[in-house]
Amino acid sequence: MILPRLLVLDPATRRRVLLPPPPRDTVPDDHRWRNSRYYVGSALLSRAHPSKLCFEAVCFAIDGGHPRAWVASVDNGECRWRALPRDEEVAVDFDPWWFESRCVHADGKMYWHICSSGRVLVLDPATLHFSYLLAPAVMGDDCFKFKYRIGETPDDGRLCIVTVEVQVMQLWVRGETRCSDNGWVLDREMNLHKVYDTVPGLPRDMISRVKSIYVTDIDAGQKWRLFIQMLGYGRYSFDLKTSKLERLPMKGLKEYGHPVFAYFLAWPPSFLSAY
User: Which branch of life, at top level (predicted)?
Assistant: First the structure.
């Protein structure tokens, strides 16, 4: 197995640093990258100060059927790795290939979607503990219906789930009420039938639309904007405020909008304004 190397970029200063792979002796009494250890993805944990290239990054892997995090602490180019114990309370009882390699930052935590699954894997940056978060059960047991995305609400930044199924957009937010479903409450619902009718060349019959349309991302910068994939017809952005659907631009036959790698702001704006 080839150990992963991480290239970290700072869009604000255009500085970059190439991190070495985790040393083979990072885990005590385990000097090799075993076949049972599957690398999933990496993400930025935190930053210390905008004037220096200081940050922490996490390398996430499945180790013997359980998640394990390797944390890289970088201080002006100097990198130090440490391995956390395997999270024995969280079992990965499926093929790790079903994990999406990119994570989503939302509501102070990190989430990895699992293809065709009604749950996502959660990492708490404060404790570095893993857990599962269930999607609303009303979505059903059909694995092909799990086309939802985790994100934040545009108004107050609460954790939310967005899905587009059978031409209907649903936005669920976290909350415990009488009608909550696995801790989710339906906040907004909209039929997109007439919106889709404005797209030239899109199939008119519902069956073809259901097979080809699904939400791929929530815009982290403009949370009221969704990205919708239409297989064979391009990718679009949907504005929750205006209900306007616009095709994303293309350049050199490359479609924009999937995947969306948003810049993760590690400091509050009030802190940045002082510098």
Answer: Eukaryota
